[in-house]
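Students often ask why we bother encoding 3D structure as a string. The short answer is that it lets us treat folding as translation between two languages. Here is a chain of 182 residues written in the first language.
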Amino acid sequence: MWRAVLLIITLFSTLLLMAMLTLWVRSHQIADYWFFADQRLSAPNQIGMTSIRSMSGELGVFRHHHLEVLNPGAPRFRHSTEELEGPMTSSVLVPSFWNKLGFALATDQPDSQTTATHSYLILPYWFPTGLTAVLPLIQINQFRRRRARYRRLREGLCQACGYDLRETPERCPECGMVPLAR
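And here it is in the second language, the structure alphabet:
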């Protein structure tokens, strides 16, 4: 049961990894924007807009709160693209160690002229790509080790070091390991 669940999680992680790699490569030529409108917030006349931006090797999540009513006919989800004409970078508020790595997190509070608040989180694509690659890489490594162990057992080699045990089947002269009975 545990192996089946781990296999399903690994396959899902592999699919996410392929999607991240595809979006990462695409983000250097085409900027993608996904917009989600949400009117179910605390204030009845407040709408929220969440947008996800994929551009220039960055994945950004932006949250906007406005004090206005959402048009009933307006779409709740929208996607748009634009071609990039050159390298673009996001504006960073305060230079720091994390900003140099490509991360950014900020919240703009409303002032007396505006009623909107904006929050954003920017991640470099290498971060979610690396996270989604961990489990598949671990599984590939374990698969390779199981195959090598099976091959060594089948060919009469020491399980620890791979030394040929046909002449000395009771103990490996190279590392001293006692082989398991077949």
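Translate back mentally: The radius of gyration is 27 Å. Keep this in mind for the problem set.
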